[in-house]
C-alpha cells in the first residue's frame, strides 16, 4: 500500500511539473507584450531560472529528509548515507545559486514556487509522500526513508535530464549532468540498502 501511495505521488509530481512547464512557457510565448524575435529567448531564460529555483527547493527538502535520517535511522549505513546526501545537496544548492548569479546577475528569490505543492492538495499521494511528519512517525523509519529518498532523488534526475535537453547555457547543462551523476549514485546506494533489509 505504501509503495502504491509513493508511486502515485511520484507520478503526480512528474505530471504537475511537466504541465506547469508547458503551460507557463506557452503563456510567455503568446504574451502580446513580448517583442517579436525576443520571446523565445525570454522564455528560455525564464525556464532556465525556473529550473534553478525548483532544484534548490527540491534540494532543501532532500536536506530536511536527510537531517531526519541522521537523527532517527537505526541502520548506521543509512545514517552515513544521509550525511553524505546532506553534504552533496548543500554543495549543489551553493553551485546553483552561484550559477544563477553568474548567468543572470541576480540572487535566486527566497520565495520560490513550491514545486511540491503544485496540485494544491488534490493529489493526496504526493502530499503523503512529501509529508515530513508522516516520515518521522513511520513505524519503520529506515524503510520509509529509503523508499521516499529513492523516489525523491529520481525526481531530481528527471528534472536535470530536462535541463540537459533544454538549457541555454553550457554551464547549466554541465551542472545538470553532475546532478544526474551524483543522484544516480545515491539512488543505487539506497536501492542496495533496500535489498539488504528486505
How would you describe what is shown here?
This protein is mainly alpha-helical. It has seven helices and no strands. Helix 1 (2-30) packs parallel to helix 6, helix 2 (39-72) runs antiparallel to helix 6 (141-166) and helix 6 (141-166) runs antiparallel to helix 7. The longest helix has 34 residues, at 39-72. The chain is elongated, with a radius of gyration of 18 Å. Residues 1-36 and 113-125 have low confidence and may be disordered.
Provide a brief overview of the structure.
With 198 residues, this protein is mainly alpha-helical. The chain has helices spanning 2-30, 39-72, 76-104, 124-129, 132-136, 141-166, 170-197.
Largest sheet geometry:
none
Query: Compute the gyration radius: what is it?
Result: 18 Å
Low-pLDDT residue spans: 1-36, 113-125
Proportion of β residues? under 5%
Count the beta strands: 0
Mean pLDDT: 79
Shape: elongated
The end-to-end distance, rounded to whole angstroms, is 16 Å
Estimate percent helicity: over 70%
Structural class: mainly alpha
Q: What string, H for helix and E for strand, traces the elements in order?
A: HHHHHHH
Number of helices: 7
What does the secondary structure layout of this molecule look like, with pairings?
Layout: H1 2-30, H2 39-72, H3 76-104, H4 124-129, H5 132-136, H6 141-166, H7 170-197
Helix pairs in contact: 1-2, 1-6, 2-3, 2-6, 3-7, 6-7
Summary tags:
single chain, disordered N terminus, mainly alpha, elongated, 198 residues, 7 helices
Amino acid at each position: 500500500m505504501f509503495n502504491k501511495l509513493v508511486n502515485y505521488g511520484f507520478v503526480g509530481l512528474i505530471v504537475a511539473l511537466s504541465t506547469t512547464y508547458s503551460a507557463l512557457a506557452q503563456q510567455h510565448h503568446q504574451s502580446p507584450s513580448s517583442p517579436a524575435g525576443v520571446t523565445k529567448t525570454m522564455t528560455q531564460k525564464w525556464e532556465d531560472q525556473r529550473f534553478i529555483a525548483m532544484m534548490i527547493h527540491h534540494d532543501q527538502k532532500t536536506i530536511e529528509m536527510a537531517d531526519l535520517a541522521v537523527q532517527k535511522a537505526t541502520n548506521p549505513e543509512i545514517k552515513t548515507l544521509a550525511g553524505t546526501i546532506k553534504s552533496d545537496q548543500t554543495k549543489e544548492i551553493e553551485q546553483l545559486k552561484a550559477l544563477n548569479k553568474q548567468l543572470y546577475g541576480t540572487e535566486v528569490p527566497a520565495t520560490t514556487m513550491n514545486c511540491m505543492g503544485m496540485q494544491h492538495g488534490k493529489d493526496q499521494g504526493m502530499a503523503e509522500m512529501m509529508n515530513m511528519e508522516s516520515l518521522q512517525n513511520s513505524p519503520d523509519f529506515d524503510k520509509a526513508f529509503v523508499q521516499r529518498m529513492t523516489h525523491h532523488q529520481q525526481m531530481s534526475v528527471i528534472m536535470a535530464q530536462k535541463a540537459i535537453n533544454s538549457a541555454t547555457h553550457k554551464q547549466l547543462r554541465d551542472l545538470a549532468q553532475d546532478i544526474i551523476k551524483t543522484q544516480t549514485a545515491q539512488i543505487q546506494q539506497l536501492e542496495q540498502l533496500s535489498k539488504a533489509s528486505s
